[in-house]
């Protein structure tokens, strides 16, 4: 079921909740997913189709909100594929209401109003989202009528298809201040006073509780009927005082603890976020064509035949031929000097048109989610891969193959769990039909290391931009287990004397990500 509210949509399963406390959002469109149990695959697929079907302007401001109690793992993978930020809502926090007085009160007595600590969070907006595909904890928000989505106009069937219900009216939810309702006994205590009691700070005997610094808005003790429609009564912020720590517990939002994962290699300006939305310009394409000369004509003819065989790669813009020609040229290059220049964080002005067209062409290709493999450094004791959890940034494009049965040179193998590598089928040599390439600036995290007499295997997982906002030990554990099984199967069938015939320079595959190229004969790296 899909329900529409002011700032987005709420997707629930048949057993999922129909109302949720949501943080107010003025800068984003929220796609909220809630379920009382595991999310079925058809629902996840329906959410993906729904997100892709939204207008472009909406997609740019869209974020995926995971309700409390919902398994976020399939949605985190989906958000990474769609490059959406993820918000995980915690369980709303409330404070028990103080007990009612045991003895009746005299007329004219004023009873302090109960304060609810979570009310202070109603006006707290969620933190700004700048990363894509990442996840952060949203502040707890109480369930209030202003934040509840009304009945919607969409349904999700058992097959996961999203359907529009014709003629369904969708009321518009409102956001804003509202008077805090008084308990009935407080209203009764004011009876016979001849008018509303003046508002005054809530004071309780005893010293204040240490560590409590939040303030709670307190409404004037006046009948609700005297308030002007459309306006909120004035509020007074007072400190929360209590007899002891057990009487009132206030949990203020805390900033997430800094990550403790080791990061031994970082290249300024080389992150994949620099290229994830890149499109080549007409000037770069012109310079690239001029730099290749007759070799561009040969590559362009090959791309033309490829587009006739694979219509899915066609595009209405003029840059598709030059972009794919750049991919074809780089992937099949035997020029070690060119590969060395492409591996730097900031390409020179002469190579920038080539890199621009290469990245733009890679972004046109389909992605691969799953294991890939490449060779490693000649020295299996490379310090770059000694520490589990270290993150390596590859400034240039990174090549690998998805055929895990292929032999590789050297005594080191690197198994990578890909999330965004681009498939090069039709552009690479026919002997390497399963080749893939990562965008420049890809970050890889070391999650395991296996050493035997024959080979040293390094296990890595790709970290897309914004993906490491929160640690995911369970997900990393599953990926590590899968890569370990694949590594063990390769050791059992390994043939040390076999050499690959991939149709390109072995410099593509015999270097650890993030490490410099080996020194060329008579030169420097």
Labels describing this entry:
single chain; 10 helices; 525 residues; globular; Toxin ADP-ribosyltransferase, Chain A, domain 1; 2 domains; six-stranded mixed beta sheet; alpha/beta; 17 strands; disordered C terminus; seven-stranded mixed beta sheet
Task: Please characterize this protein's 3D structure.
The chain has 525 residues and is of the alpha/beta class. The protein folds into two domains: 1-93 and 119-167, no CATH class; 272-508, Toxin ADP-ribosyltransferase, Chain A, domain 1. It has ten helices and 17 strands. Strands 11, 12, 13, 14, 15, 16 and 17 form a seven-stranded mixed β-sheet that branches. A six-stranded mixed β-sheet has the order 1-2-3-4-5-6. Strand 1 and strand 2 form a beta hairpin. Helix 6 (294-309) packs across helix 7 and helix 7 packs across helix 9 (352-362). The radius of gyration is 30 Å and the shape is globular. The protein starts with a strand and ends in a 33-residue tail after the last helix. 33% of the residues are buried.
């Amino acid at each position: 079921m899909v329900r529409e509210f002011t700032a987005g949509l709420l997707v629930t399963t048949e057993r999922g909740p129909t109302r949720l406390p949501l943080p107010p959002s003025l800068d984003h469109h929220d796609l909220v997913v809630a379920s009382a149990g595991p999310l079925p695959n058809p629902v996840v697929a329906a959410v993906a189709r729904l997100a892709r079907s939204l207008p472009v302007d909406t997609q740019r401001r869209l974020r995926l909100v995971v309700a409390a109690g919902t398994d976020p793992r399939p949605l985190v993978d989906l958000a990474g594929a769609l490059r959406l930020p993820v918000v995980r809502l915690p369980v709303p926090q409330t404070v028990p209401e103080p007990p009612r007085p045991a003895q009746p009160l005299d007329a004219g007595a004023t009873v302090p109003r109960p304060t609810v600590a979570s009310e202070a969070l109603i006006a707290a907006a969620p933190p700004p989202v700048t990363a894509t595909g990442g996840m952060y904890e949203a502040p707890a928000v109480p369930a209030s009528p202003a934040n509840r989505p009304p009945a919607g106009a969409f349904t999700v069937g058992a097959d996961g298809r999203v359907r529009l219900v014709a003629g369904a009216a969708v009321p518009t939810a409102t956001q804003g201040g509202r008077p805090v309702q008084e308990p009935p006994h407080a209203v009764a205590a004011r009876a016979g006073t001849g008018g509303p009691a003046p508002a005054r700070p809530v004071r309780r005997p005893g010293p204040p509780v240490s560590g409590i610094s939040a303030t709670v808005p307190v409404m004037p003790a006046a009948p609700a009927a005297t308030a002007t429609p459309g306006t909120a009564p004035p509020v007074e912020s007072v400190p929360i005082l209590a007899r002891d720590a057990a009487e009132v517990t206030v949990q203020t939002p805390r900033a997430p603890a800094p990550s403790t994962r080791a990061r031994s290699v970082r290249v300024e300006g080389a992150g994949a976020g620099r290229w994830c939305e890149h499109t080549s310009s007409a000037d770069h394409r012109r310079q690239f064509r001029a730099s290749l000369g007759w070799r561009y004509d040969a590559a362009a003819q090959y791309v033309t035949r490829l587009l006739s065989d694979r219509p899915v790669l066609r595009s209405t813009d003029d840059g598709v031929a030059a972009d794919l020609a750049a991919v074809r040229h780089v992937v099949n290059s035997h020029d070690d000097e060119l590969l060395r220049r492409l591996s730097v964080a900031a390409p020179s002005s002469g190579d920038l048109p080539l890199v621009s067209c290469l990245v733009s062409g890679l972004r046109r290709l389909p992605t691969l989610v799953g294991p890939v493999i490449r060779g490693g450094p000649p020295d299996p004791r490379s310090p770059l891969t000694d520490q589990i959890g270290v993150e390596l940034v590859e400034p240039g494009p990174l090549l690998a193959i998805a055929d895990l049965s292929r032999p590789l040179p050297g005594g080191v193998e690197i198994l990578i769990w890909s999330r965004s590598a681009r498939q090069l089928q039709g552009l690479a040599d026919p002997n390497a039909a399963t080749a893939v390439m990562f965008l420049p600036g890809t970050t890889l995290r070391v999650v395991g290391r296996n050493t035997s007499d024959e080979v040293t295997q390094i296990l890595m997982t790709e970290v897309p931009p914004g993906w490491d906002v929160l640690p995911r030990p369970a997900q990393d554990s599953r990926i590590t287990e899968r890569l370990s099984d694949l590594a063990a199967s390769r050791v059992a069938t390994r043939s040390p004397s076999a050499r690959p015939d991939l149709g390109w320079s072995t410099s593509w595959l015999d270097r650890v990500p993030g490490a410099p190229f080996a020194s060329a004969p008579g030169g420097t790296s």
